[in-house]
Write a structure and sequence with these properties.
Blueprint (H helix, E strand, L loop, with lengths): L1 H5 L3 H43 L2 H13 L1
Length: 68
Amino acid sequence: MIGFVFNLGMPELLVILLLLFGGRRLPELVKGLGQGMRALNQATAKSQLEEKGDATTTSQMNMRAMSS
């Protein structure tokens, strides 16, 4: 999204991130980003299931979330 505004590609963004955060912190940042995206996807899926009123599937999603 930001790359589109400044016309930057993935390699350029990676170099900028590497310069800003360093090689040691970059894996931690990517891991945190992945965990945040996973939590957002799970919350979205749970919300959609609750809208449908499917209690059985919601409890299955809760079990999966607890196990991961």
